[in-house]
Amino acid sequence: MTPQKVPDIFRNKNLIAPQQSCNDGGATYIQGTLMPNTIPAAYLTHELRAPVTAIRLGLEILQEQLRERMQVDEKHMLGVTLNNTARLERLVNDIMDYSKIMAGKMRLQKASCDARKLVGETIDSLRAMAIFKGVKLVREGGDPLPRIYAEERRIAQILTNLISNAIKFTPARGAVTVTVALGKYEHEGMLLFKVKDTGRGIEPKDADKIFDMFEQSAANSIETEGTGLGLALARLMVEIHGGRIWAETWRGLGATFCFTIPIAAQDLPRKVQTYPQPVKYSGLLIAMTRHINSFLALFV
Fold first, then answer.
1. 213 in a domain, yes or no?
2. Are residues 212 and 166 both part of a single domain?
3. Strand, coil or helix: what is 281?
4. Is 133 part of any domain?
5. What is the layout of strands, in order, in the sheet containing 107-109?
6. At how many degrees (to 10) do helices 115-133 and 152-168 cross?
7. Do the Cβ atoms of 204 and 251 come closer than 8 Å?
């Protein structure tokens, strides 16, 4: 069998032209160019999206209609098929979005978004995946949160990639914890999102490169297959929103993925400005001043 030729873009990251972030009102996009041999990849993923979505919807209808008549093992197999189909659908969408960003075609329609609602809905959408894996999915923090200035579905996409990635690398009976809080110090004016897992963690030397396309930590690459595209896309999405993403990890103690997104202008905390207090003169000082002035007047 003749080996298939791998497009050069997957061999050499330097084929990507320098990118520039642009802003146009509520829309934000990346300007850049890809070599022509990357166009087929974007085209193929576009053609794959419709049939993959149709398969998933068909399986969901089948599951709903035959739920009461299926045996336990049949339900299990259908659940596995559904999960893998959903994973394939996310991968197709990720490839398309990655291609759009790198080709300068991604535009963000930013608006004020309810961060609390967004996080809750994203966690709910991934709860079945966590249950199937035997992983506890937890949301911490109940304090009121300011709204963020972003495209809601893109932040949901970032969270989905990070949470599903954490579930994938967390063993059964482990936990994935999602927290959101106000950024402090260098992250002031931002909302800080954290996704923490109890997996094997990441090698310190891999902490930066795991956000590159097709990269994985050596600690996880043996046991779990993956392209690494989800983290690469998450980084690009965070950066075109004006935020930052990074990983905090300790070998054998799990990993925490953090990212920041700007707070909507109307919810930015107002800094209290302090002004010098007016000088208050006591009656004694005023009286002394009058006496001195009267004394000086004698010599005029």
1. yes
2. yes
3. coil
4. yes
5. 20-24, 27-31, 107-109
6. 30
7. yes
